[in-house]
Amino acid sequence: MYSVKVQHSLSTDRTKFLSMSVGAFSIVFMALAALVMSAGSGMARGAPDSFADLAEQLLPSVVNIRTTASVQGRAHSGPEFNLPPGLEEFFERFQEGQPERRRRATSLGSGFIIDTDGYIVTNNHVVKDAEEVFVVLNDDTELEAEIIGVDDKTDLAVLKVDPTVPLTAVPFGNSDVARVGDWVIAIGNPLGFGGTVTAGIVSARGRDINSGPYDNYIQTDAPINKGNSGGPLFNMQGEVIGVNTAIYSPNGGSIGIGFSIPSNLAERVVAQLREFGTTRRGWLGVTIQQVTDEIADSLGLPEASGALVSTVHDDSPAAAAGIKTGDVIRKFNGQTVPSSRRLPRMVADATVGTTVPVEVWRAGDTLAVEVQLGELEKVDLASLRSAPQDQAAPKSLESLGLALAPLGQAARQEFNLGEDVDGVLITNVNPESDASEKQIRPGNIIVEVNQAKVTSPDEVAAQVEKAKAEGRKSVLMLVNQNGALRFVVIKFDQG
Questions:
Q1: Which of 181, 196, 246, 263 fits a disulfide with 175 by CB distance 3.0 to 4.6 angstroms?
Q2: Residue 128 reports pLDDT greater than 50
Q3: Is 293 a catalytic residue?
């Protein structure tokens, strides 16, 4: 806290007039400010006096979901209880030898009606592996539900019931216009207490919680707990702007950090599940990584943005279009790619089979290519492999703190490398080197140096010497680490 003393040099006869003018101005200013604050949906608004009218309107559209499934487990008679610390192992040993029996397990979740014909949205994890799914309406009517389609990548599912009573549906809203600080309400079935309404604000947008490739969650402090999964997050217009999916909680209960799938993502997935029973996402056929400041500098990029291609899969749309390992994808389908995290969502949103323009940065130049997208769901991603490289004679690189060797059979056996892995083997890493700090380890394979493929330790050394002659302080390496390719900038030892 601080205060500022202001001295005025006003004559006595002007002081009264000035104070009256300031007072009148203040009244006008406050009136205008109030008018502006209340005008337009994009302007800030105060807290509502009550959520009761909105809750009454929306409660009939939210359902409880109950699933049953058979699970394998040992027979256990007696009450369920929490074991004291240290007795878990004893209990497991005690159970050994007891016959395993299949038992019925029940789980609870939430959902919401999007069509009066009986279509309901929930989370995939709510109905996953369920043998029976039941929907309980707000008036306690229970209906058996059919699973129309699920998507594990976004954790969404669509159910269908045959309504015996009139249903109340709710529309999706535009999650892109939701602002941090906007009021929201959540309705669901937390801990089995159905029809529960909570309120809060949008705490953050675009959250990545490492749950999948398309993470873009809305974060809210509206209290949600176990059982809220699949329930809606509403804006003040009664539109669904999110599907409540996860909470961050060290104790299993709400601490005010919940995550919802944004409606603009959910609505597209739901539409595909209703039409096809599955999703249809675009597929480019590349593995990508983040462009760091070091990588941008080594590639001559003006800024650290875009997505760096570390692998181009064989027989993929990217390979057919001429995209190469080491390219930086800067624009996709006319849109700028701000980061590697954003590109998978852009590709997934594109229509399968269409040809889209892609702009890449390669060797200091911007190139434009046309890519005809494949369908992700038809690709066996686990079977994709990059093209093999050749090998040759040994070399050590003290300036990088690396010892290198060709990939002979003895080396393959020592480092457990398959016949499909080729390149230049790193056999030792100086623990005080920059390579060690960048998590380079013995057994890693060098595939490229400064975007030039290397087929021997001598070629690695040649690229290093070339970089030094050009006045560079580091090299950009493409490294195979346990089957995963990534680019790493390694600085020269300045000692």
A1: 263
A2: yes
A3: no
Domains contained in the chain, CATH given: 175-276 (2.40.10.10), 282-383 (2.30.42.10), 395-491 (2.30.42.10)
For 370-390, write each residue's pLDDT tens digit: 999 998 877 754 444 333 333
Active-site pick, 155, 215, 221, 327:
155
- Model confidence pTM above 0.85: no
Q: Is 229 a catalytic residue?
A: yes
For 261-270, what is the mean pLDDT?
A: 95
The whole-number pLDDT of residue 253 equals 77
Contact 202, 219 (CB under 8 A): yes
Asked if residue 45 has pLDDT above 70, the reply is no
Q: What is the dihedral of CA 458, 460, 463, 469, to 10 degrees?
A: -70
The predicted-structure confidence for 162-211, as pLDDT tens digits, reads as follows: 998 899 999 999 999 999 999 999 999 998 888 899 999 999 999 888 77
Q: Give mean pLDDT, residues 217-226.
A: 92
pLDDT for position 231: 95
Q: Assess whether pLDDT exceeds 70 at residue 437.
A: yes
76 is an active site residue: no
User: Which residue is it, tokens 């590709």?
Assistant: 347
> Per mean pLDDT, which range of 35-39, 122-126, 220-224, 232-236 is the poorest?
35-39
Name the active-site residue from 61, 110, 203, 229.
Answer: 229
Residues 61, 107, 125, 474: which is the catalytic one? 125
